[in-house]
Amino acid sequence: MRRIVALVVLVVLASCRTAPLGGPEPGARSSEAAVTQFLAAARAQDLQAMSAMWGNSESLVRDRADRQELERRLIVMTCHLKHDESRIGPSRRGEGGRILHDVELTQGPKRATSTFTTVRNSKSDRWFVENFDIEALQEFCASAPRA
Questions:
Q1: Which residues contact 118 (CB under 8 A, 6 or more apart)?
Q2: Are 142 and 80 in contact (CB under 8 A)?
């Protein structure tokens, strides 16, 4: 009986490990997918998922930033990226192989367009959001007017 239980446990354990221990691979397969996934993570206020999409051609920001500073920056970004709908416009080439996307965000009656810069990571060959125009989205993070 012990052998059967041990065999069942081994089979269950072997079948459970389907993803790498660190979770899904950071970055996206395309520039547009990087923006889409970054926005979805921000909308869900999923800081872990956002940090998996934020980087440059060398590394993820989370691999080189202090954890508290990283979390503060991500929280500020989620505030500015609150949206009900998003529309990613056509891409255009930027400097150094970067791709730029004008993204229109809608939050209730508010509308704003921000330019997102994506870059391909030289080590993983995956795309990351490197930057976006946060100033264009200031109204999205503004406090509600007091009555």
A1: 31, 34, 35, 98, 99, 100, 101, 127, 128, 129, 130
A2: no
Contact 115, 102 (CB under 8 A): yes
Give 34-65 pLDDT, tens digit per residue.
999 999 999 999 999 999 999 999 999 999 99
For residue 30, give both structure tokens: 């395309």
Residue 9 near residue 108, CB atoms below 8 Å: no
pTM listed for this prediction: 0.80
State which amino acid sits at residue 65: A
Q: Which of 15-19, 26-30, 121-125 has the highest mean pLDDT?
A: 26-30
